[in-house]
Structure formats: structure tokens, C-alpha cells
Amino acid sequence: MKSLSIKDIAVKANVSITTVSFIINGKAKEKSISEAVIEKVEKIIEESGYKPNQIARSLRTGNSNIIGLIIEDISNSFFSRIARLIEDKAYKRGYKIIYSSTENSIDKAKELINMFKSRKVDAYIISPIKGIEEDIQMLLDDGNPVILFDRNLSDVNTSYVGADHFNASHQSIQSFIDQGKKNIALVTTDINVEQIIERYDGYKKALEDNGIKYDDKLVLKIHFNQEEGETIAQIQELFENKKIDAVLFATNYLAISGLKALKQINKKVGDDFGVIAYDDHEAFELHTPRISAVQQPLEEIAETIIKLILNQLSSKGKLPAEEVIIPARLVIRD
Amino acid sequence: MKSLSIKDIAVKANVSITTVSFIINGKAKEKSISEAVIEKVEKIIEESGYKPNQIARSLRTGNSNIIGLIIEDISNSFFSRIARLIEDKAYKRGYKIIYSSTENSIDKAKELINMFKSRKVDAYIISPIKGIEEDIQMLLDDGNPVILFDRNLSDVNTSYVGADHFNASHQSIQSFIDQGKKNIALVTTDINVEQIIERYDGYKKALEDNGIKYDDKLVLKIHFNQEEGETIAQIQELFENKKIDAVLFATNYLAISGLKALKQINKKVGDDFGVIAYDDHEAFELHTPRISAVQQPLEEIAETIIKLILNQLSSKGKLPAEEVIIPARLVIRD
DNA sequence: CGGCTACGCTAAAACGTTTTAGTCGATCAA
DNA sequence: TTGATCGACTAAAACGTTTTAGCGTAGCCG
After folding, report:
1. Which pLDDT score is estimated for B2?
2. Average pLDDT over residues B193-198
3. What percent of chain A stands above pLDDT 90?
4. Residues 6-45 of A with CB under 7 A from strand D
């Protein structure tokens, strides 16, 4: 069963294709189509269940009402939650979202950008990785709205929305120090992205501000794509061999692995061993004792992203890049 | 900067559009284009960075190399994990995935189907809800490959991939009984979908098989879209007012809420109070004590879905609907 | 009465591909 | 010599829309 086309409707209504198109697009009044014809055509459309072919539409108009969202990994709860919020908000404004994960692979990221480009998405929301600066610059040069989030790319002049990682990290470490902790570890990843570096810088600066000497041996950089088992082993090694009374995990999945590691070596979180995780997770609230965490304001981030995108879409000319840094919240538990 | 079209390439290479198209689509040999021309054109394409406009392609060929994935909620870890696996596997076979969440709204589900339809996706993977049978039937009538997963729709004759919810639930309850539990509660939702009903049936049957009388008061049906606070309150009420020594949560988010509820009223999970969650979650492994869970074999489900889809896509005629039920695994912890 | 504008509608071009049905010359078998 | 086949390529239709330009009639102004 072939699906209906505008032509079928035109024939049925005994009017021209043009007329039907005007009616579909709400230009009937403006183009002075008579009330009678409008009603007749609308009735036929209704009855036949005709839906315009969006592909033909896109081909003709050059836009798609689709926003492309490129993230690191949809199965990470930070991203899946933000994706959901963005999807929701975009949907309410008449936009659809297509998303896809890069898995931190430069090649896949490039491919995704190309795919979105050849599908003529109207705008791009990207949590980028180093190595795709050129591709992003090309999108910008072609006049596409692009918003980076979560991580910024300093070499390229785009709008960006993200949390204040430096301060959140600084504040976390400060809270440890205020509790009298001295030997504070940082478990982070080796991916070379801004927000991870900022968290590291915040850690360092807080130590310095309090006259505590930075010790390289207390910082563990986990290789990004490795097996969880190995991660756990490395973390255990850190905790068993060093004198440590507090630790900041730079991502929520590291914190999860870290908590598993602690559990296995039977080291308890508590007054004499503090833990803070960056990015909250359901498991932290449930853990005994409950784990403190830095919460990124997801709702606000999503809302800001959508606002910036819509601004850019509705303005003809290019808008100046805008950076929005949103404070993160340290939630102290138990 | 307008993007290049096949015509630009043709002009540059001084050949016809047709020739370029043949080369792009690997039909050069078959259409006996000379080696020299092939090389020349390929070089020009390479240098200019030309990418075919997929929209025009789709319009002409009627397919898109895109598979539409419709799920309940991307921020639920079960779905986001399966989405990631499906995306990955599809990607390796040259297909892209577009996904979107229904939020259990019939209207949104219908809209999504229409959106995918008008974008001419090649196939549909849907975790359906009751009320969209007709829409799915229409997709089938139009000859589209459709695979349902997670939940089946008995009124419509589609392929389906899902876990064996009845047995998993039965087995869970049986394990409680084997431990000597007598008053076993079930916390489930009121959404009227097959897999939830099967879990309920498994619960009932296991009690019956062991000569335990089914007690309506031990079954709590949580309204789907309600606030978490209310859910927690209801669960607390259940536990405080009834004599209960074990509970099966029918979804992982209910289990999360349930554990929060238990924590607040300071009821400990342990030998005299057993908990099993349906669908595993990182929080369960980390909980003290660790929480047992029914694991759906995500990897296998994703793989099976993709296989069925590809089979249908590559066979011309319609294939008979196929139901694949995959056993779930009860993981007993601590 | 001639020229304008408004009304109600439509023909046809354009968007960027794929694909069918050729064309034109050269080679080949009979 | 002729008809068929092959090699190398191409013109043009088609996919389903949107949109520009325009057509014929009627009413109105001066």
C-alpha cells in the first residue's frame, strides 16, 4: 500500500497541489483560499489520514525540524538524563531530537557529524571531544547553530553551556579540609577534556589555598576505555598503599567502581574516610552511609541549551557565541 | 557556503551526473565505467569533501538506512543500556538509530510513529504500550519490519523479543519460599502491559504451587506517573502495616524507591527480610547488603532484535512473525 | 471607459538524488 | 555486408514537496 501524496489529496478535492500545500502549511488565508475549499480539503486530509512526507519537505525547504544531539554515551546516567530533558523541551517547541553516542571515539564523532550534516539537521548539540575542532568549525562556517555542553573546546568559538567544574571541585576539597582531612586523593580519568581538567585544577588549587602540599601519588588517572575490573584493582591499590582519609571521584562511574573497590577491601566510608562523587547517581543516596555528591543542575543546563539553540534558529544572522557557566551544587549527605 | 551537489562534481570532472552517481554507489564496474574516469571522479570527491545529500537519496530510493527505536523512557537505565547496545550493533551493520521516548503516553507514541513514518525509517523497534495496536498494524500493513521488545502486544501479530518474565518472577518467589518466607509482597505498577502482568502471574502461581494463599493486600500497584515521594510513602505504609518477610519489586525504579522507603523507616534488608528487584541496577550491587535481582540478558536481547530486523530487511517478502523468549537470570546476592 | 487592485486559484520550477532507457561507435560472428 | 553485442557513457524522468510567478474575473476609482 503506497502512502498518499499531496497529489492524491489534490485530485480527490479537485483542486491544485499548490492549494493543498497552502492549506497544509496554514497559508490559506494569506493566499486567499476560500473558506469552502479549505474545509473541503481539510476534511479529505482528515479522513484519508494523509501525512506530508517530511523527506520531500526537507529536501525542498532545506530544514528538518530536527536537532542532532551528540553525546559520549547514552548509557551513562548523566547523559541519558540530560538527553531526556532536552528531548522533552525540544519536543514541546516542535523540534525532534536525534541522538547518538560517540563512545569517545574521534572517528565515530566525525562520522556522526557527517551523518547529521547529510540529514540536514537544523542545529547541533554536542558534548565534544578533543580532535573534532575542525569539524565543528566547518559546521559553524556553514552557518549551523552549534552548542557545546558539558565540555568546552577552547580552540573553537561556539556557545557553551556547562557547570562550574572548577569551583565545584574546589568546594568539595575545601569541605574535606574543613573536616580536618589532610591526605585527600583524586580519582579521575585520563581523557583530555576541559571539564576533567577543571576538576583537577580545582582539586589542586584548594590544596594550595590551604597550604597542603600537592602529592602526585594521591592522584589516580584511570584509562578511559578499560575494563571495570582493572579500574577497581587500581583503586584498591591506591587505597591500600597510601595514607588517605578522603577521596574525590571525578565522574560518577568512577565513584561507582570506587565504592565497589572499597566494599571488596572492606574499607568503610565514614567519619575517618570521606567520599565525594562528581555527578550524582541513584546509588549514592541509597548507599550506607549515603555518599555526598556534586550535582550538576541538569534541568537548568537542558533549559539553557534549548534556549540558546532556539535563539540561534530564530535569528537570521549569526549570533555571537555565548558561554553560560552554571554553578553546581555540593550535596553533603549523612 | 552552499554544500556541494553531485552536479558540481559532475561539472568538475566533466562527466555526467549519472556517471558520478554510479561511481558513488559502487556500480561503476557493473555499468562499465572506465578505470580512468572512476579514478578521476573519486579523486575529485575526495578532495572536495563531497557528501551525498541523504535526504535527496531517501526521497528517491524510499529508504533511509535508519531504524527507529521507540522506548518508554531513555533515562531509565534498562532502556538506555539496551538503546546503547542496539545502536552499537546497528551501527556496525551500516544502520543508524533514531530514538525517542514515549513516557507511556499513547498520544506521544502515536506521534512518534507518525514522525518516523514520515521520515521513512526502514524499520521499527518498539517497546509498545496498549492502545497503539492499530498504528502498529498499519505499519505492518504497509510492509514495514516491526519488532516489539520488552513487552508484547497480543492483539497484533509481530515479531517479539523479550525475557521470560513469568518464569523469572516465579523463580524469584520460589527462592523466597525456599528460604522459609511466608508473607511475600509484590510491589508493581498499574500500567497494563504484558510483561508486568506476567511478573504478577509468576508471583501468584509460585504462591499457589507452594500452597500459600494469595493475599491481595500484599500486592501494591503504584500509579505510573506519580511523584516519587508518594510512591515511597505508599511503600512505607505497606511495610509498616502488614506482616511481610520478603518483597519482589517488579521494576528497578520501584526497587530504588522501595529501598529509599526502607531506609527511611529503618527497616533492614537481611535474613529476616528478603528483597529481590526486577531488572538489575548499579545501586543494587553497592547496597549494603547487596540486593538480589533478576537480570535481563541485555546483550542477547539487543543482538536478537538486530538479527530479526536485518533478516526482515534483507528478505523481500514478509517473513512470518517470530517470538523469541530469552530466559532471565536471578542473581542472588549476599 | 481605462487602468488598478483584490480575489481565488494554478502551472511549473526547484530541491539532489537514482535509475531506466537510451546513444554512439567499435568489434565480432556468420 | 549485416546484424548483434559490447563498452563507455548520458538524458531525462521520477521521488513529494514548497514557492514564485501569473491568470482570469470582478469591483472600484477617477
Report:
1. 67
2. 89
3. 74
4. 6-7, 17-18, 21-22, 24-25
Which residues of chain A does B73 touch, with a Cβ-Cβ cutoff of 8 Å? 84
SS3 string of B208-248?
Answer: HHCCCCCCHHHEEEECCCCCHHHHHHHHHHHHHHCCCCEEE
Q: How far is the CA of B31 from the C1' of D4 (A)?
A: 20
Q: What is the mean pLDDT of chain A?
A: 92
Longest dimension (CA), chain A: 85
Q: What is the pLDDT of residue A3?
A: 82
Residue A1 in any domain: the answer is: no
Given a cut of 60, whether residue A1 has pLDDT beyond it is no
Antiparallel, parallel or unpaired: β B219-222 and B246-249: unpaired
Grouping H, G, I as helix, E, B as strand and the rest as coil, residue A317 is coil
Interatomic separation, CA of residue A11 and C1' of nucleotide C10, rounded (Å): 13
Domain limits for position A283: 165-295
CB contact under 8 A, A96 and B99: no
| pLDDT given for residue B118 in this prediction | 85
Return the percentage of chain B with pLDDT > 90, whole number.
73
B114 and B229 together in one domain: no
CA-to-C1' span, B317 to C14 (A) = 36
CA B239 to chain A, closest CA, distance in angstroms equals 18
Answer yes or no: is A59 within a domain.
Answer: no
